[in-house]
Amino acid sequence: MLKNLLPSKPGTEPLAEALRACKSHFLWAAIFSALVNLLYLTPTLYMMQVYDRVVPTGGLMTLVLVTVVAVFALGALAGLDWLRGRLMLRAGLRLDRMLAGKVLARVVDLQAKAPSTQALREFDNVRGAIGGQGMLALFDAPWTPIYLGCCFLLHPMLGLLTLVGGGILFTLAWLNERDTRPRLSKAISSQNQAYSAQEGIAGQAEVVRALGMRQSSIARQVEQRRQATAAQADAQLAGGRYSGAIKFLRLTLQSASLGLAAYLAVKGEISPGSIIAASVLLSRAVAPIEQLVGAWPSLVQAMASWKTLTELFAGTASVERERTNLPDPKGRLQVEGVTVKFPDTEAPQLRGVAFALKPGETLGVVGASGSGKTTLARVIAGALRPQAGAVRLDGAEFEAREGDELARWIGYLPQVPSLFAGSIKDNISRFATSVGVDQETADRGAVAAAQAAGAHELILRLPNGYDSMLGPFGQGLSAGQAQRVALARALYNDPVLLVLDEPNSNLDQEGEAALMQAILGAAARGAAVVVIAHRAGVLARVDRLLMMRDGMIQLEGPREEVLEKMRATTPRPAGQPGQPVHAAPAGGHAPAAQPGMAPMAGATQPPRRAQ
Ligand SMILES: Nc1ncnc2c1ncn2[C@@H]1O[C@H](COP(=O)(O)OP(=O)(O)OP(=O)(O)O)[C@@H](O)[C@H]1O
């Protein structure tokens, strides 16, 4: 069975390894189960001895002896049963130790949002099932034929009754599985959807309240819950029908075996002691089937969860690939024919994007909303893997470096600052102390990064300075403060490639000046800097400009050259035919209002949208 569960696809090695590490637990649990099942024969043998030897002869000594042996055997049974349960529990704990971190790492690496983002919950299902009654029932199941054999040994008629009864029970169990499996899968997926929706609403409670969406979101929640509980109830009802029938059949079989054995005893074909023994043997033979039916939902859920985990690991296979250590990069960025297409969309969001940037160069990226700037930033930051093309740092594809090792060289400020619960210092140092960096080094790095970002003074002015604690999702700072702390985080450890996605969207004048200094400082020490901006102030001093349109590069080159072309393509005053559509002429250096770009320093026109 273990072999069938062992995943073999590339990337799933950690799962297979963890299962193999628990092999001895499973093996010992199987051995103990064998002993437990043998010891379950004790009451049968005891009864036969009492009725066939003690009662006819009145031998009290024999009674004492067989009782002592029976008590000892039952004690051993209880001990072994406890031990096998404990072994399986420990197997679950070992799986947790070996896999929990890896599951989380794979979730972080997962590119598309998929149900496997709840992977830790899926993993808990598997762990719970391993330590649960269902697994023990699976270990007991192979003993059914042995008990059946014992019934045949007592008398062929008793064997036949057990065989036929067991067969009907097995058929019912199979029908149960066939009927409940699809219902259970539906119940599990609706439950997962209901939980995710609930978490989403709880996380945005403030917006829900302020927008007066209480009633509508509660109504949607309740409806989702109703669907989930209805699906669950449907599965339970279907399963309940079968478990009721199975219970009825088992009790009837037990009584029938008593009756049949009594008849055979009256006819002198078996001893009186065999009457109760027959009933006990039969119930032991069919008990695993009944147990399995009861534990089936959790086993099915665990199997489905294991499949999801296998898919998650196979889909993130590159995480644990062996890689050669490469020299420290200098910051030479090459973007080669990058194409990105998000799942469930018709056209790609980036198409054949290609450009290069040298260490120390700064690139401004502009373009209308939805033109693909953020998508490009995510690709360059290593956050999003393109479907085609490559991004190289000093000639090596991003994939050539392990995720965290690559991130060490890249500073990324996402469009939404995305800070985390923890101190400001921990946020800036990217929680380095959690992975063994000593406190002093992390402190020094955090302060240096904050100074480079021009955020040191701002942080010192906070009530607890660098030790100020942020709440979930980095709550506790203003949008501008959060952006400046996130800039410091991007600059932590002097990355050679800096990717800033609208870094000035929430900044005041002081913040924007600090940002400009940070960009120029990073470029001066040799970092390549990519800045995406709608507000043009920050682009006034970049070396190169890149203009995106519909997921493609429209213009790219030295800043002045690109500005010149932009000006050349701006429409003349209304009435002049044959002019390109989207920008008004600007004074001085700047194209006044290219789509998605506010006027550069000195220009005064408001931005215009592409028509
Ligand atoms: N996760 C996603 N799934 C599907 N489509 C997406 C996803 N993220 C972005 N898009 C689509 O990709 C396109 C580019 O989006 P992107 O965020 O890169 O634009 P942008 O130029 O940064 O816009 P803005 O200036 O408004 O931030 C848009 O059409 C958007 O709808």
TrEMBL record:
<feature type="domain" description="ABC transporter">
    <location>
        <begin position="333"/>
        <end position="575"/>
    </location>
</feature>
<dbReference type="Pfam" id="PF00664">
    <property type="entry name" value="ABC_membrane"/>
</dbReference>
<feature type="compositionally biased region" description="Low complexity">
    <location>
        <begin position="573"/>
        <end position="603"/>
    </location>
</feature>
<dbReference type="InterPro" id="IPR027417">
    <property type="entry name" value="P-loop_NTPase"/>
</dbReference>
<dbReference type="GO" id="GO:0005886">
    <property type="term" value="C:plasma membrane"/>
</dbReference>
<dbReference type="InterPro" id="IPR017871">
    <property type="entry name" value="ABC_transporter-like_CS"/>
</dbReference>
<dbReference type="InterPro" id="IPR010128">
    <property type="entry name" value="ATPase_T1SS_PrtD-like"/>
</dbReference>
<dbReference type="InterPro" id="IPR003593">
    <property type="entry name" value="AAA+_ATPase"/>
</dbReference>
<dbReference type="InterPro" id="IPR011527">
    <property type="entry name" value="ABC1_TM_dom"/>
</dbReference>
<feature type="transmembrane region" description="Helical">
    <location>
        <begin position="26"/>
        <end position="48"/>
    </location>
</feature>
<dbReference type="GO" id="GO:0016887">
    <property type="term" value="F:ATP hydrolysis activity"/>
</dbReference>
<keyword id="KW-1133">Transmembrane helix</keyword>
<dbReference type="InterPro" id="IPR036640">
    <property type="entry name" value="ABC1_TM_sf"/>
</dbReference>
<feature type="domain" description="ABC transmembrane type-1">
    <location>
        <begin position="27"/>
        <end position="301"/>
    </location>
</feature>
<dbReference type="InterPro" id="IPR003439">
    <property type="entry name" value="ABC_transporter-like_ATP-bd"/>
</dbReference>
<keyword id="KW-0472">Membrane</keyword>
<protein>
    <submittedName>
        <fullName>ATP-binding cassette subfamily C protein</fullName>
    </submittedName>
</protein>
<dbReference type="Pfam" id="PF00005">
    <property type="entry name" value="ABC_tran"/>
</dbReference>
<dbReference type="GO" id="GO:0015421">
    <property type="term" value="F:ABC-type oligopeptide transporter activity"/>
</dbReference>
<keyword id="KW-0812">Transmembrane</keyword>
<dbReference type="GO" id="GO:0005524">
    <property type="term" value="F:ATP binding"/>
</dbReference>
<keyword id="KW-0067">ATP-binding</keyword>
<feature type="region of interest" description="Disordered">
    <location>
        <begin position="568"/>
        <end position="611"/>
    </location>
</feature>
<feature type="transmembrane region" description="Helical">
    <location>
        <begin position="60"/>
        <end position="80"/>
    </location>
</feature>
<dbReference type="GO" id="GO:0030256">
    <property type="term" value="C:type I protein secretion system complex"/>
</dbReference>
<dbReference type="InterPro" id="IPR039421">
    <property type="entry name" value="Type_1_exporter"/>
</dbReference>
<dbReference type="GO" id="GO:0030253">
    <property type="term" value="P:protein secretion by the type I secretion system"/>
</dbReference>
<keyword id="KW-0547">Nucleotide-binding</keyword>
<feature type="transmembrane region" description="Helical">
    <location>
        <begin position="146"/>
        <end position="175"/>
    </location>
</feature>
